[in-house]
Amino acid sequence: MLQRWPSRIWVVRHGESAGNVARDAAVGAGLARIDIAERDVDVPLSDRGQQQATALGHWFAAMPDAERPNVILTSPYRRAQQTVAGIRRAGGAANDAPENVVDERLREKELGLLDGLTRAGIEEFHPEQAALRARLGKFYYRPTCGESWCDVILRLRGAMDTISLHHGEKRVLIVAHQVVVLCLRYLLENMTEAEILGIDAEGDVLNCSVTEYAYAAEAGTTGRVRLERYNFVAPMEREGAPVTTEPSKEDVS
After folding, report:
1. CB atoms within 10 A of CB 150
2. pLDDT higher for 218 or 7?
3. pTM (2 decimals)?
4. I need a labelling partner for 238 at 20 to 30 A (CA). Which of 58, 59, 121, 247 fits?
């Protein structure tokens, strides 16, 4: 049967951002609001995030050209696109890789009413939302004007259908956000709510970490992809780039 899956998929969380740094400062000071002027979509990488992207690009660049990514998809958020730019500048894309595909379905989970608030801020300004999240759990809880994990998964199902339609047998790099990485694991590995939340509870998806899948043929089917590594940060460690363990927006809030 026709192989519709890519031969390899790398899912990468963007490098550390200025928003990560600002949230750390706000939480550390016990503040209700995060001091950052930009819209979330416009938040850039920090200097450490730029280092991480370069280190990851060097890791890809060390592969033979025929093994490096030849399709690159990115969230429209600035920090994700800057991560891709750093990977490309370091030689991490295959020579035949076309321009990046910006896909809004890979964007950060939207927090709506809660955007820009710390957990302390939510409990102060929107205690009813804090109580609702505690009752429903993060998988199903949808903040006012925001998204649940299920909403993210719904748009990612469409994104994966597009990938299987247009990029079969390719080597696909996806650069996005922590919740997107986890929700893609849920989809690609056919997990349950309890299984993916268990992985989430074990620790954050590290900035610029690699989650990698390889195609496996199965008789009578179009095959599947199998997880080869998760939260892989050796590319940063080898170059002495900082490894940062920033919580996602929703976990800070």
Report:
1. 14
2. 7
3. 0.94
4. 247
